[in-house]
Write a structure and sequence with these properties.
Elements (H helix, E strand, L loop, with lengths): L5 E6 L3 E7 L5 E8 L7 H14 L5 E6 L10 H16 L3 E5 L5 E2 L8 H4 L3 H10 L4 E7 L4 E7 L2 E2 L6 H7 L2 E2 L14 E4 L2 E4 L8 H7 L20 H11 L9 H28 L9 E4 L3 H10 L4 E3 L18 H12 L2
Parallel strand pairs: 1-4, 4-5, 7-13, 13-14
Antiparallel strand pairs: 1-2, 2-3, 5-6, 7-8, 8-9, 8-10, 11-12
Helix pairs in contact: 1-2, 4-10, 6-7, 6-8, 7-8
Length: about 350
């Protein structure tokens, strides 16, 4: 048994993330697994078991944050929170579980039934709180498979205007755009192709992962989900899916044409996120040279965004004790690392 170690869990709607920290706060291992919760709660049960079996460690302290309560498997977010907590209690028993509830701190499972709103979709706050404890000022940006979080921090405080998903969507701190699962029809409604503007087909023929396979920027370790057509996750397969978006076959143009089209999608997504970043920056009295701190599998895009707005880029990994790391990339799993670190500090 490792009584002073802790495992942090981020229960997402599409991925399960976990991070194992030792008593000194060093990250020993992290993992991200596909976990399509909308298809059934058994995916979470199997995912938790897989993590514990792979790591073969007897850790008795666990900290949990989540966004998976949003999936349409649940009729309400409160039902989702209760279900996810119940699963974690079942899989981790008899270990101690602490649930991150934002400003309310950490709660035991038996205290969670009157705090669903505080627990729901608070993983961004765990990550931002971690950054706030390590840097005097920063704009924290986490680009994952599906969403982007944009949060300002200063003097140890998180300066978020929105607290829940609705409010964060309204104020630009949550943008539903990521580097893997975003349907291309949600990124723009038309594209330049063969000298004309072509409206996109409103079909889920392709996703953002296809774009970044063609640009060569998508990390292989992040490419965990089937393609929209269940076809090959290759450059040619991605180009074929992009062709469908404009009503063509792959053979109707050259690979260079499809790569150019992919670059347009990427540029359009960059501009969308840059606008959100500038909106959030305009709301706070931060230094003109405040850096962008990047997390998530889409950090390659955050580096580009930092260049676009003339700011330094700092990888979240630079704030994490990782000298003893034996598995995974902690910055890919920022909420899991952050919730474990915060729980350890709260002891």
């Amino acid at each position: 048994m490792l009584p002073d170690d802790i495992i942090g869990w981020d229960l997402g709607g599409a991925h399960l993330k976990a991070a194992h920290l030792d008593a000194q706060g060093h990250v020993l291992r992290v993992i991200q697994l596909p976990c399509p919760l909308w298809q059934g709660i058994d995916y979470l049960r199997r995912g938790v078991d897989e993590v514990l079996n792979q790591w073969s460690v007897d850790v008795r302290q666990h900290a949990v944050t989540m966004t998976g309560e949003l999936v349409d498997l649940f009729s309400t977010r409160a039902e989702g929170v209760r279900t996810l907590v119940s699963v974690m209690e079942d899989r981790l028993w008899p270990a101690t579980i602490e649930l991150f509830a934002g400003s309310r701190g950490f709660l035991a499972p038996h205290d969670s039934y009157n705090a669903e709103d505080a627990i729901a979709s608070s993983n961004w706050l765990a990550s931002a709180s971690f950054v706030a404890q390590h840097l005097p000022q920063a704009l924290f940006v986490d680009i994952g498979s599906t969403t982007t979080d944009i949060v300002a921090v200063r003097d140890g405080k998180v300066l978020a205007q929105g607290e829940n998903d609705h409010d964060r969507l309204c104020c630009g701190e949550l943008v539903y755009s990521g580097v893997l699962r975003t349907p291309l029809m949600a990124m723009t409604n038309r594209v330049p192709f063969n000298g004309t503007w072509v409206p996109l087909m409103a079909e889920h023929f392709a996703a953002s992962a296809d774009v970044y396979r063609l640009t060569g920027e998508l990390p292989m370790s992040a490419d965990q989900y089937p393609a929209a057509d269940n076809g090959p996750r290759t450059r040619k397969g991605s180009a074929r899916r992009l062709a469908r978006m404009v009503g063509l076959d792959f053979e109707a143009a050259t690979m260079n044409d499809w790569c150019r089209l992919a670059r347009y999608f990427s540029d359009h997504q960059t501009q969308t996120l840059l606008a959100a970043i500038n909106l959030v920056l305009s709301r706070h009295d931060l230094d003109i040279d405040v850096p962008l701190v990047g997390a998530g599998v889409g950090r390659f895009l955050i580096r580009r965004l930092a260049r676009c707005c003339g700011r330094r880029y700092i990888d979240l990994l630079s704030s994490i004790k990782s000298e003893r790391l034996v598995m995974g990339d902690p910055a890919d799993c920022a909420p899991a690392v952050a919730v474990a670190w915060l729980a350890r500090c709260a002891r």
